[in-house]
Design brief:
single chain; 622 residues; alpha/beta; Chitobiase, domain 2; TIM Barrel; Jelly Rolls; 8-stranded parallel β-barrel; 7-stranded mixed β-sheet; 17 helices
């Protein structure tokens, strides 16, 4: 009964992210052809958006009015707002123009579906809301290096972020498989680097679309997107990868590489060994590139990647080994740190801040650098505890290229298992960061890597509804988050949003069990996991072992099912799960289990190469 009442409230006030304070009021406000907009000073962008969203015209009436104003005396943070709806007026007060804009988004979410379709007359319920974000950085990363996304879709994606009060669009523009941004001083970056001979459709066994592939954004395209985002209070953070993930650039200008060979733009996914050389002339090239990037993107933060840079070519290069000695460096890791520090210093001289993936910690972190922690939370913990700012982007809950359910029922993806519930229950402030250091967590973002995500529709399918869960994670107080209420609100909002979201079906639960880094090793060990919670009577069950992150896959040499310590079923086949999955589902038939009995999986497992392996065990009946 309690949940039923809560669901009724959520259906009437289906706001995502959940507001800090929401107080129901009797009555409603009616929009009609006489409703006017009354906007105070300093609200040019917010009032323009209001005219886009609402059937209103400018006026000065005190009733039947939508009133927007900035009130710096509000006891809220800079992006906070107050929304008051009664029978006479809708009033939105913001600590800043951004706050007023976020109040508008809550108003839009209270509007019925017909209003989103152009109705001129409709009602919104009376309410008093006071709201503000938990974190400053609330965003999403879209990889356009692997697969190019059209400019108009980028705008639509930004619209969806803004609706859900996210304020950062991290635009991944360069990769081994494609350079996507016009650089006028180096035209070959797009003449050569934006095109590849074919596209990998499946990693193992390898399968390709043999059609040549290409695409890039002109500087005018990028400026148009930056302005479009700014009008919606979204900051665009460009990413120009270095020193790894740079084969497209080296293919364009071979002198930037380590071998002198003419390379092609990469056509396979994964970590690729061809990287920039660490010569001064390469640093000069990248400074030139960044000059043009900074002229397009006003973002304080410039992302330089810094991840997955193999050292093979540096180790094999006599010239790089000579440079290591000349620069007084210990090894190739310190050379990468030297490389990053050159760029950090240059960006700082231009009034910008460097941000990179957590590998930039290796060999010593540049003084002004901010870390984007993707390999779990360890990098973020290390950086924050050392006094560096952090954006959490963990594979554990924020990699939306991972499957949302059983791979047999989903479009092909890179791997992993990340259901909606696991995203929603995550928190981006690790317990290992003491309270006095937690201010270094700027916020978080979800990632859409596009190796196998080739179309805008598929981007939306993978991003939402998980992106709504992330938005609530980044904005709402932990105490306000309730998964069942979130689902009720999402069921109202998703149909109005005009996106190809994945349906809200039974894929709402957490994995049954999991393994974590350090729990396995290179040698086979017998491990046991409790799966009692997933057993619902006698019948056929499937057990999926699904790698989610880490350096090593997991090998599984058969499984046994135990009830109160006694083996009741087996499936002895060998399987593995990692960047590729081979026979990683085991099937058993279980007898009826008495209430109070303990049901377990027992398996011989090993991390193929070491203990850094993480994953989920998903048990399903049928």
């Amino acid at each position: 009964m309690v949940h039923l009442l809560a669901a009724i409230v959520m259906n009437q006030y289906p706001i995502i992210p959940a507001p800090v304070t929401l107080i129901q009021q009797p009555g409603h406000f009616t929009f009609n052809d006489q409703t006017v907009l009354v906007a105070g000073s300093g609200l040019k962008k917010a009032s323009a958006m209001a005219r886009t969203y609402l059937p209103i015209h400018d006026g000065s009436a005190t009733k039947n009015a939508v009133v927007l104003k900035i009130d710096k005396s509000l006891n809220l943070n800079d992006e906070g707002y107050r929304l008051i709806i009664d029978e006479d007026t809708v009033e939105i007060q913001g600590k800043s123009e951004a706050g007023v804009f976020y109040g508008l988004q809550s108003l839009r979410q209270l509007m019925p579906a017909e209003a989103w379709k152009g109705a001129k007359s409709f009602e919104v319920p009376s309410v008093l809301i006071e709201d503000q974000p938990r974190f400053k950085w609330r965003g999403a990363m879209l990889d356009c290096g692997r697969n190019f996304m059209p400019k108009e879709f980028i705008k639509k994606f930004i619209d969806t972020l803004a609706l859900n009060k996210m304020n950062s669009f991290h635009w991944h523009l360069t990769e081994d498989q494609g350079w996507r941004l016009e650089i006028k001083k180096y035209p070959k970056l797009t003449e050569v680097g934006s095109k590849r001979a074919k596209t990998m459709l499946q990693y193992s066994p390898a399968k390709y679309d043999e059609t040549p592939y290409g695409g890039f954004y002109t500087q005018e395209d990028a400026k148009e997107i930056v302005k479009y985002a700014a009008d919606r209070f979204v900051n665009v953070v460009p990413e120009i990868e270095m020193p790894g993930h740079s084969q497209a650039a080296v293919a364009s200008y071979p002198e930037l590489g380590n071998t002198g060979q003419q390379l092609e733009v990469a056509t396979t996914w994964g970590v690729i060994k061809h990287v920039y050389n660490p010569e001064e002339k390469t640093i000069a090239f990248l400074k030139d590139v960044l000059d043009e990037v900074m002229a397009i993107f006003p973002s304080k933060f410039i992302h330089i990647g810094g991840d997955e840079c193999p050292k093979d070519e540096w180790k094999a290069s006599p010239r790089v080994q000579q440079l290591i000695k000349e620069r007084g460096l210990k090894d190739e890791h310190e050379m990468q740190s030297w490389f990053v520090k050159q760029i950090d210093t240059y960006l700082a001289s231009k009034g910008r801040r460097l941000i990179g993936w957590d590998e930039i910690l290796e060999g010593g972190l540049a003084p002004g650098a901010t870390v984007m922690s993707w390999r779990g939370e360890a990098g973020g913990i290390q950086a924050a505890n050392s006094g560096h700012d952090v954006v959490m982007a963990s594979t554990n809950a924020l990699y939306f290229d991972y499957y949302q359910a059983d791979p047999k029922t989903e479009p092909h993806a890179i791997g992993g298992n990340l259901p909606l519930r696991k995203v929603y229950d995550f928190d981006i402030v690790p317990a290992a960061i003491p309270a006095e250091k937690q201010h270094h967590i700027l916020g978080g973002q979800f990632q859409i890597w596009t190796e196998y995500i080739r179309t805008p529709d598929y981007v939306e399918y993978m991003a939402f509804p998980r992106g709504l869960a992330a938005a609530e994670m980044f904005w709402s107080p932990r105490s306000k988050r309730n998964f069942r209420d979130f689902i009720d609100r999402a069921r109202v909002q998703l149909p109005k949003m005009n996106i190809n979201a994945r349906p809200l079906d039974a894929n709402l639960g957490l994995p049954t069990a999991e393994w974590k880094a350090g729990q396995v090793s290179n040698a086979y060990q017998t491990k046991t996991w409790n799966i009692t919670s997933a057993i619902a009577g006698a019948g056929n069950y499937s057990i999926l072992f699904q790698y989610t992150s880490g350096a090593f896959r997991l090998d599984i040499d058969g499984i046994e099912i135990l009830v109160d310590g006694k083996v009741v079923a087996t499936d002895a086949h060998f399987g593995r799960t990692g960047n590729e999955h081979v026979d990683n589902v085991w099937k058993v038939k279980l007898p009826a289990v008495q209430s109070g009995s303990k049901v377990e999986i027992r398996a011989k497992v090993r991390g193929d190469g070491g203990g850094d392996s993480n994953g989920d065990i998903v048990v399903s009946k049928g």
